[in-house]
Amino acid sequence: MKAFCSLVLFFASLSLQAGKVVSDTIRSEILKSDVMYNVYLPDGFGQGEGRYPVVYLLHGFGQDYQAWSRDGLMRILADELIESGEACEMVIVMPNAGGSDTMREWNGYMNMPGWNYEDFFFTEFMPAVERKYRVIGDKQHRAVMGLSMGGGGCTIYCQRHPDMFSSCYAMSAWLGFSGENDYPKGSKPHLVQESMREHSAISFIENADEQTLVRLRTVRWFFDCGDDDFLLDLNVRLHQLMRDRKVKDELRVRDGQHNWEYWHQALRMALPFASRNFGRP
Amino acid sequence: MKAFCSLVLFFASLSLQAGKVVSDTIRSEILKSDVMYNVYLPDGFGQGEGRYPVVYLLHGFGQDYQAWSRDGLMRILADELIESGEACEMVIVMPNAGGSDTMREWNGYMNMPGWNYEDFFFTEFMPAVERKYRVIGDKQHRAVMGLSMGGGGCTIYCQRHPDMFSSCYAMSAWLGFSGENDYPKGSKPHLVQESMREHSAISFIENADEQTLVRLRTVRWFFDCGDDDFLLDLNVRLHQLMRDRKVKDELRVRDGQHNWEYWHQALRMALPFASRNFGRP
Amino acid sequence: MKAFCSLVLFFASLSLQAGKVVSDTIRSEILKSDVMYNVYLPDGFGQGEGRYPVVYLLHGFGQDYQAWSRDGLMRILADELIESGEACEMVIVMPNAGGSDTMREWNGYMNMPGWNYEDFFFTEFMPAVERKYRVIGDKQHRAVMGLSMGGGGCTIYCQRHPDMFSSCYAMSAWLGFSGENDYPKGSKPHLVQESMREHSAISFIENADEQTLVRLRTVRWFFDCGDDDFLLDLNVRLHQLMRDRKVKDELRVRDGQHNWEYWHQALRMALPFASRNFGRP
Amino acid sequence: MKAFCSLVLFFASLSLQAGKVVSDTIRSEILKSDVMYNVYLPDGFGQGEGRYPVVYLLHGFGQDYQAWSRDGLMRILADELIESGEACEMVIVMPNAGGSDTMREWNGYMNMPGWNYEDFFFTEFMPAVERKYRVIGDKQHRAVMGLSMGGGGCTIYCQRHPDMFSSCYAMSAWLGFSGENDYPKGSKPHLVQESMREHSAISFIENADEQTLVRLRTVRWFFDCGDDDFLLDLNVRLHQLMRDRKVKDELRVRDGQHNWEYWHQALRMALPFASRNFGRP
Questions:
Q1: CB contact burial C256-279 (16+ within 10 A = b; e otherwise)
Q2: What residue of B is the nearest CA neighbor of C220?
Q3: ipTM of the prediction greater than 0.85, yes or no
């Protein structure tokens, strides 16, 4: 064995083939706005004829479309999981659900007055991005995941569109709101909270009829929330409701709070979870 | 159970007590230079009379003293491990072993012509920082760890100063150099490589006499290197040599390459490792 | 490197130094019975003057004192964790809380008519075993853990005797009973269920006054229960109550059911948890 | 939430649907012997028309076909991994490669004088068992794994029959023998060691021509060996040779020795590894 290992090798190792993250924009007529998004493209993307499964990866309140690639180290993690075979090659789409880093421009994933984001997502965004980035584009090869407000977003999207996604991985998910709304009426935080009240994932399950439950059972569900997270009780409650109504899901409570350390570890599990559920009946 | 969970709670959760990272500078007479460093101070630091164990956490070639807190997410991870009890409260010191992001100013942890960093580290830096930051300051409560060039640095520091550290955790460590030096003579990379040839951790063990081995056995050693890392063979070889010479160590080969994903996971194991070896005979 | 590796080496490797599990018996005047127990003694036990921390490791309903060493593979796991330093050297005591493998003889850890096991445990068993097996014998160096009925046992023991234990690790814990008791009155299962109603860990926290809470905060608590375990809700509820009453604990919900796979993995975390809490203030 | 949880529920939970392990026998004309084997059949096996992927799971020297289900807790682990979706539904076949618990009857997986086990395995055993147990029966849905001597067995089987298996997971593998054979000539241990010399997996790679390497690249390889295992060097060396010859593999060195604790954890990774490689091109 040679003990030769040099700085030359070090710099060579940095040029290993790897996926990349590109930024893109779409014009939304529904939102009357340009919407930014990031896309992770796996190593070798576009070199052949192949089409890819797709994951929609949603950011949280107060974050933007760059959060996952900047703070969540998603590119290097996706590369590693694909290299070792724990995740399959996939396109990962990270849309913006807000505007800037000022509070007044944050909006969320649901329809609300002046901001019909859910309509935008399903009728404008998904069709366009799946055409552009060689995505397979059926339920069996589409997953959605997200953190905090995005964890609520992916859960509610799958509740209302279970025919669109094979799996849902919700991290530290904000799943509903039922208290006093202390923000000024008409302010963006006030609107966001009211939209979570209206679209509560908890209420959705409580009120689901048998026909709805049958459709929910076609999605693989995963809830992952820290034992010190202020949202823990909502996640446990949703799991209990789903279990009691016979919609199989996975629940994990790991050590941690509402932060990037937790979400980074969650993504290590979420990409393999989505991968092994791609193509399953 | 209340389903009430709001954005107010979310922002409240961001203000949980937590450790902080501060930047500081020391004037070195040996290096004829100001040397920057970061220090992680645990939550509650300085509020009592208590003194803390200390970890020196070393960056790699081409990085600087900010790398661990910026790219390695060390603060949030240290907070979490301390909160759950997996790591004890400790001060974590991250010194600079270079100058800027230009190649010509990088230098490393060993003494070399014009850059006696090891002398600086042990005679100027450690005494000053341990006075300033309420560190206990004995072998039983001092650990060193690092990545790549810093993994070599911590290993060689413990080989040559085993009476100073209770444990050593080397990540993806660059442990020696024995080939052709392709960089221009006199250039900084050339000097760094030559210093690794001169101070090879491999050679050190090969040549250690029994008296030295006895002293090495007072340190707890941990080597952690990815299966796809170009430095794997050096790490395995050092483990084999130490095992054969009856210096107990731990070896881990996990999935991964030479990147922050690997080092971030390594730090999750390294801080508990250092913690449980503090105070051990 | 030699490629020489032989069956001779294989058999040599089986004779590595290791801890051992011994079976012992104590006569109980309180129970009017001989009580069997197993003790894990770490490698080197009894060769010096040293005294050891102690863990009481409790079996579940329908099991006996041999369950942990037979089905839970505890010896090999304790050896490994001690070897790597993740757990410290300790004595592990596994008492019997029943009689045989027939339903009618199982009894549990609480006092109940004709079976004052809790009295036996604290006034006869602990003093005797700690004298015999070189145990340090103070709160700071004593922990208790257990599975299912034993998870309830260790929790309730720590609730009622918080000055006796530094930490408590409850696995898939049976923490209370509040329904109809369908077993025939006077039968052993009926008595066991009534004792869980009387000594409910849930009720204990609900009813604890501030003075009691202060004492509970001197114990480190850990609850670990599978997402598919029928006891999950009890464990989550106890965590919520403790959190709301400011008694810090850890909660983990991992993948799994009420079985040895879960408990074996739990023990991998429980022994390090107990170890790092030994000696803490 | 109800706090009602009873012994009735406990016993109900024990009757959850689950896979089972059955024992079976095959008459071998080649070995002139009856050969026992165990088969794990997943929950629901045989209720439909479906055919299953198959894993061959090999025991070590000094063990028999019951070892994995008895000491390795494979059934409960397979059930759990299938339930959570980490492993797919599969048939797991555990053949005997020896005779009894006396040394003289142990033989191994290779052909040797009087014991042409490899011939038996590929021409008698596999065809018969795959007919009987509804196995899909092609390379893409067949995997092999094993521990120690069985880790060598699965590696060498895949080296010599790469068109038969999609993946290979070798645990603490005995991969070759190149020293003095200290056992009496003609004794079974002597024969086993000589067969490992003759069929060394190390030599196989060293001597493989390019055409062979191309075929080896159609198998997914995984080597997993403890840092304190006496077989570590062989495993590292095989990884280095395969890497240098561009046959991609995975290497893991975890904490541990040559024992069931290590192999049990290995199986937690091996079944998902085999699963995600079933059906891959």
A1: bbbbbbbbbbbbbbbbbbbbbbbe
A2: B85
A3: yes
